Q: What sequence folds into this?
């Protein structure tokens, strides 16, 4: 026993030191001592003003001169090849990182000037990979506000096209979710993440490539419901499939961290080479000509 303990003790002390290091790490994103309030009549505005961005410790700029405004009642889509910076752009909105140049305003104020808690209450964010926590379906959907009503939870699940598979489970909303959501499929995980983001009824909702794990039918049904339910809200969608964003009010085309096109589907087909390439590779001729806008 003593020899076993003599091996265990130093190991435990090393682990304890590592855990402590994590616990004592100071967050690099902090609230200012004096914070500002959101501008009421600019509700739902997301304004990127000549934003550039470099990841901490990296030596090159990943984003350069990103300039666009997403408005309430409109859908703004981001498209571009893998690595073009789409996720990086949307990660700046809830202030997961701070911009290194230019300004990012939400509801008329710089995101660095408002309390993070207030900022994140306004934003529903669905990350590229659906993330679930161990608990139940209910605790996952109510994550943003544990006192929300069951009605509100069910409505969010309904819009996210999750009701069918939840109701097929024996314990329905009380069904267990394993750590990391390993006991549900990729598409189900994605839909529960979407339900969680919708449940807090945010004024700005961001989908980072959140529809790619869904089959075509679910994808279009979900977007149809979403369009009905998100009237007046600011919707920002990162997409791979052009069909997901055909009807967006504004499409931003990214290439190597820069905006190379901005406009509607029809406008971009005419004047953006990169967009035309993506479109030609994905859509049939009829779809190209029949697209709205
Ligand atoms: N945490 C990070 N640290 C350093 N570089 C990163 C990080 N995340 C992404 N990058 C780099 O930033 C670039 C843009 O990535 P990303 O925004 O994920 O593109 P997209 O979502 O369009 O595929 C890529 O070159 C990627 O390697
Ligand atoms: Mg991405």
A:
């Amino acid at each position: 026993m003593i020899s076993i303990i003599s091996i265990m003790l130093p190991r435990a002390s090393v682990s304890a030191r590592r855990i402590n290091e994590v616990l004592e790490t100071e967050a690099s994103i902090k609230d200012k001592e004096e914070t500002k309030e959101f501008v009421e009549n600019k509700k739902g505005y997301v304004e990127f003003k000549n934003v550039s961005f470099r990841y901490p410790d990296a030596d090159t700029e990943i984003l350069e001169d990103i300039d666009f405004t997403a408005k309430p009642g409109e859908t703004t889509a981001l498209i571009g090849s893998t690595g073009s910076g789409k996720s990086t752009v949307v990660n700046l909105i809830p202030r997961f990182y701070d911009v290194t140049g230019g300004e990012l305003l939400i509801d008329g104020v710089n995101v660095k000037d408002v309390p993070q808690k207030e900022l994140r209450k306004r934003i529903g964010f669905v990350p590229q990979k659906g993330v679930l926590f161990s608990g139940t379906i209910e605790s996952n959907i109510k994550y943003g506000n544990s006192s929300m009503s069951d009605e509100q939870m069910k409505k969010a699940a309904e819009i996210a096209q999750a009701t069918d598979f939840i109701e097929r489970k024996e314990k329905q909303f009380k069904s267990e979710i394993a750590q990391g959501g390993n006991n549900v499929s990729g598409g189900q995980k994605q839909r529960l993440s979407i339900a969680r983001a919708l449940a807090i009824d945010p004024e700005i909702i961001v989908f980072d490539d959140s529809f790619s794990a869904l089959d075509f039918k679910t994808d279009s049904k979900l977007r149809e419901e979403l369009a009905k339910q998100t009237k007046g809200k600011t919707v920002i969608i990162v997409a791979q499939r052009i069909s997901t964003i055909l009807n967006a009010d504004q499409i931003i085309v990214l290439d190597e961290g820069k905006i190379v096109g901005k406009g509607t589907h029809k406008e971009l087909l005419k004047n953006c080479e990169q967009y035309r390439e993506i479109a030609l590779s994905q859509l049939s001729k009829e779809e190209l000509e029949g697209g709205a806008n």
Notes: Residues 142 and 196 are 7 Å apart (CA to CA). The radius of gyration is 21 Å. Residues 86-87, 128, 209 surround magnesium ion (ligand 2) (CB under 6 Å). The chain has a mean pLDDT of 86.
